[in-house]
Amino acid sequence: xxxxxxxxxxxxxxxxxxxxxxxxxxxxxxxxxxxxxxxxxxxxxxxxxxxxxxxxxxxxxxxxxxxxxxxxxxxxxxxxxxxxxxxxxxxxxxxxxxxxxxxxxxxxxxxxxxxxxxxxxxxxxxxxxxxxxxxxxxxxxxxxxxxxxxxxxxxxxxxx
Length: 160
Description:
Radius of gyration: 24 Å
CATH topology of the largest domain: Hypothetical protein yqbg
Number of helices: 4
CATH architecture of the largest domain: Orthogonal Bundle
Order of helices and strands: HHHHEEEEE
Strand order of the largest sheet: 1-4-5
CATH class of the largest domain: Mainly Alpha
Low-confidence stretches: none
Oligomer: single chain
Shape: elongated
Strand content: 5-15%
Number of domains: 2
């Protein structure tokens, strides 16, 4: 998808590109400039979705570099973002689709890091001693691998 096609989709959601009228070149340039700024801000937050940057001004004929799963989030979010700029109001469907699309972008770009549980875990108030809490000391450290537990040998923990 080219950057021009992306800008036209955003402007269509805003009602600027219709069957009877099309966007002015200045509107497409403004849309692309705002889109590039917004995507670079998303990159700074850790959502790297592949926008191609060549200079300060985006070239409309250039490929955007966005994967297909990111198009919905970018187009709808930019329509919501640019609605006041063009004197429009974003529809509720556009706002809802922007949220769904941004959740998809987050799911595809955020990687859950492994977590290591502490070597001691409190047993609870009932199991405390008069001189302080009684801690449970597991024999092996348990590490999560994102979606399953692994032990020190990186073998999945399948039994409690």
